[in-house]
Model the fold of this input.
Amino acid sequence: MYRAPVDEISHTLKSVAGLRKALEDGRFGDLGEDLVDAILTEAGRFATDEIAPLNEIGDTEGAVLEHGEVSTPKGWKKLYRDWIEGGWNGLTGPEEYGGQGLPTLLSVAALEMWNSGALAFGIGPTLTMGAVEAIEKHATDELKAKYLEKLVTGDWMGTMNLTEPQAGSDLNALKARAEPVGDGTYRIFGQKIYITYGEHDFTDNIIHLVLARLPDAPAGTRGISLFLVPKFMVGDDGSLGERNDVFCSGLEHKLGIHASPTCTMIYGDGKFGDEPGAIGWLIGEENKGLACMFTMMNNARLAVGMQGVAIAETAYQKALAYAKERTQGRAPGHTGEGMSPIVEHPDVARMLMTMKALTQGARAICYSCAEALDMARVSDGDEAKAWSERASLITPIAKAFSTDIGMEVASLGVQVHGGMGFIEETGAARLLRDARIAPIYEGTNGIQAIDLVMRKLPLSGGETVARLIADFKADAEAARASNAPALEGVAKRLDGAIDDLETATAYLQKAISEGRQTDALSGATPYLRLFGLTATSAMLARGALADMEAPEAGGRAALARFAALNLAPETAGLVASITTGADSLEAAKAALSS
Done:
């Protein structure tokens, strides 16, 4: 059973992601460590005691569509009501609309715990929080007044409607259309697929954010607008009126996250209302909808990164508990009677330590992304720009590296369980099934790698990435200067990883500047992993050095040393692939068409 690692989460927030210093500097008003600790403790309790026990039920029962209505598994509707009554949906929401206005750092920490408890539960509120941010930043005051408070409290949930059968990652092919009525509203027509929580029984209204084209819109992504489309019309007094012309026509039968309804949504079929067309309101400017939606998508990308961390944490806990109980063979040095617990076997210990190091490294990366988002909001001028660009740089790494390691760690968890891992009753297989969607969600990880290389490396002429690498160098130097025996070899190996990262960065920047796009794109995915592994080693060293006198310091130092000496050496192979692999890939592509 999952137990929220509140102490480790708190340590990473305060000592690796910089929350303690921000609190000491008064960057978040009167928020103090006592309140932070209280929030984390209660969030951990709720995730452990309330959410996690319903995960298996959610997986086996799943969401069900009957007569156009979706029912969630037994106990899930009450779980959601208890969750919003605890105020969790409004942690970072604007205070003027009932939110608590807390830092993103606290929100992502809580998101990790919700998703560790049950990924299928955690993804729903994530989209509502993203919808709140998009509406707050881009909608009219009238729309904010009518919809934001209910979304902030969680009384209503929000969705994100991009994908169509012919338009997945490439939104140039989007065909959903919006026709102006002349009274400020629009009639929306089209089909959207893979819409998470597009229909459910958690709330009595669902607010859809929908991308569609106006009749005279330019071709491609320059001609996409964003519309707010409620399931039920809302009166000026906030009361619910007639059903809008939008409905769920089917649920996908998925590999995992069975309790999360993944819907095909039909807009403007004439099923509801006096005339065909779902009634919607424009958010932002005409033909500028993609920019508005990216406000929501960037929020969701970090949240999906947290899903990778969440699954990895649960998989590690489950595998560790099993390895301590399961006996098999006799490990070297075993002196007890009978067989050894498999945790004593070096190969099993290696797998478990790999799981733990990757999980905590990805956690630190995601929390550091949240730190940059928070600091950008509370800063001005050049400082705000620097933090904003750092957040932009880290976001694709947080999303892609974390969800990749979520899969990797969940797969290792099955391996630690051996044959029992392949049996559903242990729950290890469920975690692997659930984890598989996260590298696809919110822009596939290949797209994240392309974004990192093509759009983020050039930020401020390369200074943004240089400053982040400089931070890693400072971590290596701090490890060296500590002379701590427990960190022996860490600085040297971290130096090597940083050198590999700098070499790969310079190569890709040169390829971009010279117009060698194929070379840059061919190395994008290994570059993102190289970045993630280097950051993991640097940040684990930072966390170990933060409080060398703490009771947990020995374990953190041992983990940092394991990561540096066992995981960081992979960067040498990655830099070779990045700088020399493009020609071989181009030559091999011919075989794909033969």
Remarks:
- The two ends are 50 Å apart (CA to CA).
- DSSP finds 20 helices and twelve strands in the chain.
- Residues 116 and 314 are 6 Å apart (CA to CA).
- The longest strand covers residues 186-196.
